[in-house]
Each structure stands twice: as structure tokens, then as C-alpha cells.
Specification:
Elements lengths: L8 E10 L2 E8 L7 H4 L2 H11 L19 E2 L4 E2 L2 E2 L6 E2 L6 H21 L7 H29 L3 H16 L1 H11 L2 H8 L3
Antiparallel strand pairs: 1-2, 3-6, 4-5
């Protein structure tokens, strides 16, 4: 991750190659008020990439697209025999990889319950518990953490940014707070929280 209010990005190494070179995905912020064709223009794409990682030759782009960052959670993860998980159930901004990780947690939670229903070990209403557990996590934890991450990233006031860095140092220096912070950011705490919901 490269974190700055004006120029931020998340970088991922992707499977495969483009023109015999490794394929990388750069997800970065752009002004939502600008038209897509302007944001995706060769000159603008090159300008942004050179700002992140300058190099003498131009960048080769395999694919470019825009994505409107928004956050939503559906009213229910279950309607009869239809069950939703991951981005189909909840979407959030990409800062922190919370969407993908919570989607994997959705799948694990649902698979366990579906197996019990399938094998006759539980009634179908067990799937309502999946909805209660995972929708609570999406609303209480994923949305709140991803919003906080984005707000920290976009913060411009140097005093506020400095205070946030100092608070992070205090967390790192306190073993108990450090442990709790890691449980939260790793989303282990969210699995534990879901288990308490009947």
C-alpha cells in the first residue's frame, strides 16, 4: 500500500504475464468528478504511474477500468434458498482488504451451516443464523474499519496525521493494546464476535 491523501494505491502481483513481464494490478484513487475517459486516458494513466514509480520507459497497460468506491450492506443475506456472501452481500472501499477477507469468512461460516443442513444435522433455519452473524459483522466491523481506514488515508491536516502516527506508536509499545489491535485488523476478532451471535 502507498498511503497519501492525494496519491494512494494498493498494489497486487497477479497471476500471469503481460508482454513477457509479471502482471501487476494498481488500484489507485482518482477524482470521482472527472469523466472516465479522462481518468483512463493514456497520458493520465502514465502520469499517475510515473508518480508512483518513475522509470525511463513508458508503462504497458494490459487493462484499465474505473470503480466507484461505495459502501453498502444488503438487508438480508438469506431469502429462502438464496444466500449471499462476499461482495454480493456487502461492499466497501478497498483500503485494508476487508472486503475479500470478510467474504472468505462469509464463505467459511456459510459452508459449515450448509453442510449441517445438507446432512440433516440441522434445520434450514440454521441459515438464518448465518445471516444474523455475518450481516452484523459487515455492519459493525467491516464497514466501520474500512471507513476509518479511508478517512485516515484522506486526512490532510498534518497535526491530525501526526496524532494518528503517535497513537499507532503507543499501540505498538503496549503489548496488550498491540495484541488487541492485531486481533481486530486480522479479523480474528470478527470471527469470535460472529460466534457469539445466536
Amino acid at each position: 500500500y502507498i498511503a497519501a491523501p492525494d496519491l494512494w494505491c494498493a498494489v497486487f502481483k497477479m497471476p500471469g504475464f503481460h508482454r513477457d513481464k509479471p502482471l501487476w494490478r494498481f488500484a489507485y484513487g482518482a477524482d470521482p468528478g472527472r469523466p472516465d475517459e479522462e481518468v483512463l486516458s493514456p497520458a493520465e494513466s502514465e502520469r499517475v504511474m510515473q508518480a508512483f514509480l518513475p522509470k525511463p520507459e513508458p508503462y504497458a497497460f494490459a487493462y484499465k477500468s474505473t470503480y466507484r468506491v461505495h459502501q453498502r450492506v444488503v438487508d438480508t443475506f438469506r431469502k429462502g434458498r438464496v444466500l449471499l456472501a462476499g461482495d454480493a452481500a456487502h461492499i466497501n472501499n478497498p483500503i485494508g482488504a476487508l472486503g475479500m477477507n470478510s467474504g472468505l469468512q462469509d464463505a467459511a461460516n456459510l459452508a459449515e451451516k450448509l453442510a449441517k443442513v445438507w446432512h440433516g444435522e440441522a434445520a434450514p433455519d440454521l441459515l438464518d443464523r448465518y445471516d444474523r452473524q455475518r450481516r452484523t459483522i459487515a455492519n459493525e466491523i467491516v464497514q466501520a474499519m474500512s471507513t476509518a481506514n479511508l478517512n485516515r488515508l484522506k486526512e490532510r491536516d498534518p497535526k491530525v496525521r501526526k496524532a494518528a502516527r503517535e497513537e499507532m506508536r503507543r499501540i505498538c509499545d503496549d503489548p496488550q493494546r498491540h495484541y488487541q489491535y492485531l486481533l481486530q485488523t486480522s479479523m480474528i476478532a470478527s470471527v469470535r464476535r460472529a460466534a457469539t451471535i445466536q
